[in-house]
Every structure is written in structure tokens, then in C-alpha cells.
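Researcher: We're teaching a course module on how sequence relates to structure. For the next exercise, students receive a sequence and then see the predicted structure as C-alpha cells, so they can try to spot secondary structure elements on their own. Here is the exercise chain.
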Amino acid sequence: MSLQGKVAVVTGAGSGIGRAIAIRLARDDAAVAVWDLNGEGAGETAKSIQDAGGKAVAMVVDCADEAAIKDGATKIRGELGPVTILVNNAGMAPFTPYMEISGELWDKTIRVNLKGPHLCIREMMPDMLAAGWGRIINITSSSTQSGSFAQAHYVASKGGLLGLTKALALEFAATGITVNMVPPGFIDTPMLRGAPIDVDAYAATQPMKRVGKPEDIAAACAFLASEEAGYMTGQTISMNGGRYMGSA
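Model: And here is the predicted structure for the students to work with:
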């Protein structure tokens, strides 16, 4: 599934799932812009790609700030070319009992997890429309399918991203641009390990009795970014080890 000649932006690619996605898309021959607030992490991801013979540029970008997104996209166009693959992976996943969620935390969660992807899409959509080809992949969450305790703000934000995915898929279906989503299940990342849960004990309760790998999510994204997925839009690829088996 060669992505030769394609330019991808992966947000939140300084570690975890985003890093795995960036590395996989580069392995499939895309030139990758690694965006993250953590410059050191972004640099490490880009270096891994470069050391393997791929092409990558690391950039510190606040993926929920319109001016920063615009500036970053302008630089990427100058260095790599127009962007035709966007993976909206950057996000935050706080655990807070509903009655303790402050207005500030609610707004920040929505800004990072929903408004940020919207702003990135708006900035890069013109490149895709001009090319008559584009792939937008939104990393949502299995919590939108099952709910998640003490994460009303997070689930609401990711549920909004699910809705945005479907709306844009329909609106742009005839343009050569596909818009799909991957809701990760229980994936072993630094963010998960920092959550207030016993990761290994919870994994033992899941159908596969193990935690998923970031590379599992990356594989789904690689397919959605490919030519082979050109007739798939508005769809969900659930990588969750059987945690949720519904059709939504």
C-alpha cells in the first residue's frame, strides 16, 4: 500500500499511538509531518523515521490553536508539499467525576479533542480539494461506543468528533476525499499508563486478555490512508480486541 508522493500530517505524534501512526505511514512511503506540543518527542519520532530511510519533519504545534495550525501547515507545504493525509490523533483524556468537572476543564477538553481536529481539517481541506484526493482519519475512542466512568467531558468531545467525521464524509464524498475514524480500545501508551487504573488487571478482564499495541491502530490508519480504502468513507474501524462489537 504505497503512499509514495503523499504528504501526511499526524498530530500528537511525539509518543504513543501518534508515533506509531507516523512511523507506519512513513514506512508506506509517505512524507510525514510530525506535530506535537512536545518538541523532544516529535524530534525522536522524526529521527526514527529518518534513520529508517523515510522522510519526516518534526514541528512543535499546538493542534488546537488556529494560528499555530496555519503557520505549521504553511511551513509543511514549503518543505514537503501540499497535505493530502491528515490524522487527527492529538488529544487529552482526563478522569474527573462529572460533578467535579470545572467549566475550564470542560472547555479545554472540547477545544483539544473536537475544535482542534476541526481547525486542522479546515486548514488542510483546500489542499485535498485541489488534488481531488484526500484522507482524513480521526482517532476517536471506544468510550463513545460504551461510555467511560468519570470521563463525561472526554466522551462528549470524542462523540462530537464521531459526528463531525460522518457529516464531513457525506458532504465531501464526491470530491475524492474520504473521512473515517478509528476508535482505539485499551491501547498500551504513556497516557494509559498514567491513568488512575490498574492497566494489567483491567486487561485481564478483556476478551483477548491483553493490552493492545499502538501499532494496531497504526495498521488501521495505514489502510484508511491507502488507495485500497478509496470506497470507504464515514466508517469506523474498531481496534479494541473485542471490547466492543457493535456496529456503531
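Model: If you want an answer key for the exercise: Strands lie at 7-11, 31-36, 56-60, 85-88, 134-139, 177-182. The chain is about 45% helix and 15% strand.
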